[in-house]
Design goal:
single chain; 1 helix; 11 strands; Porin; 8-stranded antiparallel barrel; mainly beta; 53% strand; two-stranded antiparallel ribbon
């Protein structure tokens, strides 16, 4: 059963990447992002700081009169840290700190415009690995993620600005869970604010 699930997941990720020709990507990233935010899970006080590099696809999946759909690959590293104190009586078997890495294909929908500020919506699902299975929570049991391997989902809204639209600010939601690949699957959510610089 697990092998079938992994095969399906691998197929989905592969399907997401097949529209893009290999020569449209190179080893040099096209931008960097710094993102920070707080967890939304009840009884947990997690903060998240994330740094990532991205590679633009340079390919339009949708190119209509008023809209375009393109995207990028995002390779990120995060540090999660609990802000619970001893007075909060956190669980002893949940980690106070954890690191996480992810690779996510992100789709972007934006209007075609010559304006100085261009709004957009980003959405995507990728693969994730985290250093700790269980995270600290104000409860008798920790936040049980079930395993090191997870999925990363995101939905962000933001805008581009600058002479060449080389800067971005975005706000939205990051989600981590394992789609029941592991026995436990509490899931983890963050609200995040991101700043991006492209070149």
């Amino acid at each position: 059963m697990k092998m079938k699930r992994w095969s399906a997941i691998f197929g989905a990720v592969l399907l997401c990447t097949t529209p893009f020709k290999a020569y449209s990507l190179d080893r040099k990233p096209d931008g960097i992002s710094l993102t920070g935010g707080d967890g939304l899970n009840k009884r947990s006080e997690l903060s998240n700081f994330r740094a990532a590099v991205r590679w633009d696809w340079d390919a339009d999946l949708l190119n209509s009169r008023n809209w375009r759909l393109d995207g990028y690959f995002d390779l990120g590293y995060s540090q999660w840290k609990s802000r619970l104190s001893r007075e909060d009586q956190p669980t002893s078997d949940g980690a106070k700190k954890a690191w996480q890495v992810s690779l996510t294909p992100v789709f972007r929908l934006s209007p075609k415009t010559d304006n100085a500020i261009v709004p957009f919506v980003d959405f995507g699902v990728g693969v994730s690995y985290q250093s700790k299975k269980n995270l600290e929570k104000e409860s008798r049991s920790p936040l049980r993620m079930g395993g090191h391997t997870q999925f990363e989902g995101r939905l962000m809204v933001g805008f581009q600005f600058g002479d060449q639209h080389d800067y971005e600010i975005a706000y939205g939601w990051f989600h981590y869970s394992n789609a029941s690949l592991h026995p436990n699957n509490d899931g983890l959510d963050f609200q995040m604010l991101s700043f991006v610089m492209k070149w």
